Amino acid sequence: MRALLPYLTLYKRHKWMLALGIALAILTLLASIGLLTLSGWFLSASAIAGFAGIYSFNYMLPAAGVRGAAITRTAGRYFERLVSHDATFRVLQHLRIYTFSKLLPLSPAGLARYQQGELLNRIVADVDTLDHLYLRVISPLVGAFVVIMIVTLGLSVLDVTLAITLGGIMLLTLFIMPPVFYRAGKNTGQNLTHLRGQYRQQLTSWLQGQAELTIFGASKRYRAQMEATELQWHEAQRRQSELTALSQALMLLIGALAVMLMLWMASGGVGGNTQPGALIALFVFCALAAFEALAPVTGAFQHLGQVIASALRITELTEQKPEVTFPQAETLAPEKVTLTLRDVSFRYLDQPINALNALSLQANPGEHIAILGRTGCGKINAVAAAHPRLGSATRRNYAQRSSAILAERIRLTPDHQRGAAACPPVQCHSA
């Protein structure tokens, strides 16, 4: 859950719109509950009044309440979707800009460890997944809790025992069901995020490498590997769908049990009235409608594992340090620089074999050195070793750590500059 804290701060930029979206969601749920509750009471009261009460029964006020609740529910649902999605899109827009701004300082060397399509998948798909955090987790959870409190207080005016019973059942459901299904769907959500990115990487590589795969006879093998990943992805989606269906079934079961309990308790009397009449229908239909507020909560927490996995992938991308950092203050390079490398070795990331072993070099002021060798022997990496992470690179017998100073003294041809820019990060160590 800590992985979501940096992204929760992004919502502060649009807290008023997000709060308005939650308020509209609560208003919509209350209007829906009021519509069904009032309709059930109105029909039951009309049936009890019969023809004898056709002139004495006031049907205008309940009918106006039903129409008002219906209009409020429709308008509230429209504006709630409008405000909530607009605020979410604004948050995602800021998150994409923030993520891309963190990518810009990174050289191609710092991004070389990501496969083709991986960066695009993280910027697009993983960022889109984070919209579940508000739309499917925060808003339904807060809305359900507030609705439970308001419904309980409203029903307590008629009967405290019935109101506390219904409110207690709903609160227990709210506090127990979401954590249970979060645990059940956590691994599935993480696998969905991982398999989605893996499949898109494989698809991109397969499309771009058709010529090479065909020449070397590896097209069928690579296609089979990609199809295996796709089947695993579909299997993870199936497991998540089964959990969603199970959560909905349990919610319907709990709601049905609550309705029968309200029917049994209300039939014995409501608020001291031993013949409650239409009030029985009021409590029954209120219990039936109130569980609508809880319906999205259990399913929402199944997506929380997928949201956390996407947040971790974006955090891994944005917390990288640039390979080259420029000093805040202007640094004046000395006119004469002596560059010395002593027993510097380095290797590519995640590779066990060194690209260069025990490299020693001294370049005096004004001296020109040509590094010759076959393609791929490590000429550009030898230049990159002038700023090692481990090993020894000195200037005038002092450890050299400033890439900006070295960049002013090391000259590369245009072809070599492009190669150096594409050079992946190296790990150096003393021989």
From TrEMBL:
Please give the InterPro entries that the UniProt record associates with this protein. ABC1_TM_dom (IPR011527), ABC1_TM_sf (IPR036640), ABC_CydC/D (IPR014223), P-loop_NTPase (IPR027417), Type_1_exporter (IPR039421)
Q: Which UniProt keywords apply?
A: Amino-acid transport, ATP-binding, Cell inner membrane, Cell membrane, Membrane, Nucleotide-binding, Translocase, Transmembrane, Transmembrane helix, Transport
Tell me the Gene Ontology biological-process terms attached to this UniProt entry. Answer: amino acid transport; cell redox homeostasis; glutathione transmembrane transport
Q: How does it sit in the membrane?
A: Multi-pass membrane protein
A GO term for molecular function = ATP binding
TM segment ranges: 16-35, 41-61, 133-155, 161-182, 243-266, 278-301
Swiss-Prot/TrEMBL catalytic activity: glutathione(in) + ATP + H2O = glutathione(out) + ADP + phosphate + H(+); L-cysteine(in) + ATP + H2O = L-cysteine(out) + ADP + phosphate + H(+)
> Cellular component GO terms, alphabetically?
plasma membrane
Q: Where is the ABC transmembrane type-1 domain?
A: 19-306
**Location within or outside the cell:** Cell inner membrane
UniProt keyword annotation of Lyase present: no
Chief subcellular location equals membrane
Q: Which NCBIfam families match?
A: CydC
The UniProt family comment states: Belongs to the ABC transporter superfamily. Cysteine exporter (TC 3.A.1.129.1) family.
Tell me, how does this one assemble? Forms a heterodimer with CydD.
Entry protein name: Glutathione/L-cysteine transport system ATP-binding/permease protein CydC
Its lineage reads: Bacteria, Pseudomonadati, Pseudomonadota, Gammaproteobacteria, Enterobacterales
